[in-house]
Amino acid sequence: MNKKILYTIFISFFAIAIFSFTSKKKFEKKNAFGQLVIHFIHCVNGQPVKFNQLIYTDKAGNQFMIKQLQYFVSEITLRKRNGILLPFNIPKRIYYVDNELPKTNNLTIPIETESDSCDGICFRFGIAKEKNKSNLFKNPPYNLMAWPDQMGGGYHYMKLNLKYLNNQKQLSNFCCHLGLGKTNDSDTASVIDNSFPVVVSSANPFVFQSNNTTEIWLEMDIAKWFDGKYCIDMNKYDGIMDNQNAMYQFCNNGSQAFSLKVKQ
Amino acid sequence: MQHSRVYLPLKRIEIVSLVLILFFLIYSCVERKAISINAKAPTCTIAIVSTKSFNTTPYRFEVNRFPDYTNVPLDNPTTVEGVTLGRYLFYDGRLSGNTDTAMLMSCSSCHLQRHSFECGMDNPRFKGGHPVGLTGKPTPHSMLPLINLAWNGSGYMWNGMLNELNMNLGSTRYNLPAVEPYNFKNIESFVWMAIVAPHEMNGRVDRTVALIQKTPIYPPLFAKAFGSDTVTFERISKAIAQFVRTLVSANSKFDQFQDGKQQLSQSELNGLSLFTSEKADCFHCHGLPAIPVWTTDRFMNNAMDTVFNDPFDRRYVTKDPEDCGKYRVPTLRNIALTAPYMHDGRFKTLREVLEFYNSGLKQSTYSDPLMKYANRGGSHLSNKELDDLEAFLNTLTDTSFITNPAFSNPRPKDRFFIN
Q1: Among B14, B273, B278, beta carbon nearest to A239
Q2: Pairing of β A196-206 and β A190-192
Q3: pLDDT band at B44 (very low <50, low <70, confident <90, very high)
Q4: Which of B106, B229, B296, B307 has the smallest set of CB atoms within 10 Å of its CB?
């Protein structure tokens, strides 16, 4: 009798073990359907960016060089050809890109299920105000993007650091830093969300195939931050972090700075 | 007989089931361990593993607001016993391989607790706060304080030459074999470099090991820390590195202010406001209250010079000509205690540093764009504003750190133990 009970217990353990093992395999298979790699690339007037070279001229006529570029994008989703957004499990809801840290220039997203082909990507440049709170990140490099509390708190959306020849032909520094804005009209101070949604499309749709990696290239044209609806002259600013009007103009221009490339 | 024949198959099933259960148990344990190593608490996981073999006690880093990882290597978990041994070795002048009083040198010869483990202008041995080796040769750069290094993620020294990406092993120059204890990666690497470098102890690793082995206090300490009383160089460096990682400074007046336990004066608050403003713009390099190590740990050219002749600036590591004149941004924690300032110690007081950023900047192609006011010489704050900034910087001084007995000389009356 005792041995029968033992037999039952062993068989139960065995069944549970087999079940756990097969469940795990199923989970792995599900995750292994495919993956999407988003490459964050940067250009100036359509040509791949060359850092540290005084070779560019903006719309205002200033010669400039690009030294560093760091930014956050968030809320990334893909758009199917029928316009419906494709939800997927992105490992990080907020993604950081840094030209000095090459590994941040590629985002790999596991694709769990087969889907129709997509032709666009949607994201928020920066971090939405309700999520952009101080102390959200404890670890570098994310926390190094902290934005002072007295300017609204949270994190920089972007640090684009340049050098340019000013009106006196002297080398000068310019930091295009974007984040929450603040206005101090009369006695009240209000925080302004300068982050903005971006939707970019490709004429070439892309699809996900089982066990394959699909690659797309999200390109930022740095010149367009200065040369959009507003022509921004670096000579007019020391820095723009405390200048809501300047940040508004940059963000307006920046919303047109992105494009999507898909391998044909 | 018949009875036993009936249940014979059951025994087989039992055995098979047992084997399978054992397999799945081991399988799941292995998986769990791997996950915890990849997660955010490698120190604890590895430390617990280490205690099983020779009964050590895991040392836990518990600091509010700090990053939730440490750079503790997988092969050198921090243990209470290792830290104790490391503290002895840190202060012991026999680390130099010498017993003559005049030739004794230890880590503590240059790294003084009262100066946040920096040299200090009043160092009894090194006038002006610039260390000189036993050969009389000065170190290439002035010193950086040994604090909060457990959270350093971008390499060590002013140029970051010791970093995790560095694959170099050994040194033919000092006859050190190409094996792990002689790597160029981490805090452990400091120890062999300090022993052999002519601008430091100018010794030999084997001589140091032999001397420590025959010093009666050490074999029992090594046994407690590493499971046997054999002294090896690898164990010496690991123990000292463990101690150095515990040198945590996180209890300044400003920390207490953030915890609601202290008030800042109006001048200190004004200084904080300036520090985090575009006007003074200190925070882009040194961080905000949200960056509690008070440095971005990046390498920057801070517009001190227009000609760059130092062969040991950041170029030495990256070989990138764009990196000339770049150095590590130092932490501002205990900054009032760590004069002289800058990689070459050119500024003797904190006020001189503030005056430099206020009106001494020099524009060049290589100066970092974050030095926004470089082309007009600086931020041009008033004297009152400089006073406020200095008052704020003084709130980052952690007096409990510089008087913490856990970090002090364990044998102050022993002639071999320095300071």
Answers
A1: B278
A2: unpaired
A3: very low
A4: B307
Confirm if B114 and B99 have CB atoms less than 8 A apart: no
Inspect the interface and report whether the beta carbons of B290 and A3 lie closer than 8 Å.
Answer: no
Under 8 Å between Cβ of A33 and A111: yes
**Which pair of tokens denotes residue B304?**
């001190």
pLDDT at A188: 52
In this predicted structure, what is the pLDDT of residue B141? 96
Please give the distance of CA B247 from its chain centroid, rounded to a whole number. Answer: 8
Tally of domains within chain B: 3
Please name which of B100, B54, B111 lies closest in space to residue B77, comparing C-alpha atoms: B54
Alpha-carbon distances of B265 from A62, B254, B336, B395, B400, rounded to whole Å: 45, 11, 18, 10, 20
Q: How far is B79 from chain A (nearest CA, A)?
A: 24
Q: Which residues pair with B33 in a beta bridge?
A: none
Across the interface, do A171 and B365 touch by the CB < 8 Å criterion? yes
DSSP B182: G
Helix, strand, coil percentages, rounded to 5, for chain B: 45, 5, 50
Give residues with Cβ within 8 angstroms of B277, minimum separation 6.
A148, A150, A242
B369 vs A contacts (CB less than 8 Å): 67-68, 161-163, 173-175
Half-sphere exposure of A220 (CA within 13 A, CB side): 25
ipTM of the complex: 0.84
Structure tokens at A98: 């840094």
Q: Which one of B24, B69, B371 has the shortest CB-CB distance to A20? A: B24
Which of A13-22, A100-109, B74-83, B136-145 is predicted least confidently?
A13-22
B10 contacts in chain A (CB < 8 Å): 3, 6-7
Pairing relation of β-strands A212-221 and A34-44? parallel
In a domain, B10, yes or no: yes
Same domain, yes or no, for B181 and B276? no
CA atoms within 13 A on the CB side of A225: 23
Q: Which has the closest alpha carbon to B264: B404, B395, B102?
A: B395
Contacts of B367 in chain A (CB under 8 A): 173
Domain residues for the domain of B318 are 253-397
Could you tell me which of B240, B210, B208, B247 has the C-alpha nearest to residue B76?
Answer: B240
- Which of B1, B152, B6, B129 lies closest to B73, judged by CA? B152
First to last CA, chain B: 83
A4-51 pLDDT per residue, tens: 666 666 666 556 555 554 444 443 444 557 888 999 999 999 999 999
Nearest CA distance, A166 vs chain B (angstrom) = 10
Alpha-carbon gap, residue B395 to B253, rounded angstroms = 5
Q: What is the pLDDT of residue A88?
A: 66
Same domain, B305 and B391: yes
pLDDT for B26 beyond 80:
no
Judgement on whether residues B106 and B214 belong to the same structural domain of the protein: yes
Count of alpha carbons within 13 angstroms of residue A178, beta-carbon side: 29
Q: Residues 226..285 of B with a Cβ closer than 8 Å to A: which?
A: 273, 276-278, 281, 283-284
Is residue B174 in a domain?
yes
Decide if B297 touches A, using CB distance below 8 A: yes
Classify residue B360: in a domain, yes or no.
yes
Mean pLDDT, chain A, integer: 86
Nearest C-alpha in A relative to B27: A21
Give dist(CA B409, CA B113) in Å, integer: 9
Distance between CA atoms of residues B254 and A44, nearest Å: 43
Query: Are B14 and B104 within one domain?
Result: no
